[in-house]
Amino acid sequence: MKSFLALAMLISLPLGLVFGQDGKAKTVKKTFNRTTEVSIDIAAGPQTIWDLLTDAENFASWNSTVVSLKGNIQLGEKIELVSTLDPERTFKLKIKEMAPSQRLVWGDFLGKRTYQLTKNINGTTFYMHEKIGGFMFPLFAKKIPSFDESFEAFARDLKKAAVQK
């Protein structure tokens, strides 16, 4: 019976709360795509974390994985992000989904990144997921660096900033 209850609880949790928990990133590579995700508990409310995630002007000040972020983080808007993984490239991304204090999705034609906030008894579980790929992905997949360390740093930075706020 205990095994059944444990399995039932596991199945009912969002995938990110099982996969990549406690700030450790996980990546799954497939022929036509790659998915990286991380999840971490933060002793702060969802609104505090949301305010950090949607403040483009100060995004790089707390986030060591971002060189710069320009634009307005609002539904339908376009932003320009420069990452430490490829500081010579500017990613032009569109805000695809926004549910205040819950979910934010941005991306381009190659992929999308999802941020999800779930209130818990100690604050908030932050979950970040990115899937990149497409038909031509196998041709350039080896040139794209691993996101694991960057995702882990992002989660740590966000936790630190939210708790200090």
CATH architecture: 2-Layer Sandwich
Low-confidence stretches: 1-20
Order of helices and strands: HEEHHEEEEEEHH
User: What is the arithmetic mean of pLDDT?
Assistant: 90
CATH superfamily: START domain
Major sheet description: 8 strands, antiparallel
- Please identify the structural class as seen in this structure: alpha+beta
* Radius of gyration, whole Å: 16 Å
**How much strand content do the residues show?**
35-45%
In DSSP terms, counting alpha (H) and pi (I) runs of 4 or more, how many helices?
5
What does this structure look like?
With 165 residues, this protein is of the alpha+beta class. The protein has helices at 2-12, 46-53, 59-62, 137-140, 148-164, and strands at residues 26-29, 33-42, 66-71, 78-83, 91-99, 103-107, 111-120, 123-133. It has one domain (20-164): 2-Layer Sandwich (Alpha-D-Glucose-1,6-Bisphosphate, Chain A, domain 4). It is 27% helix and 37% strand. An 8-stranded antiparallel beta sheet has the order 1-2-8-7-6-5-4-3, with helices on one face.
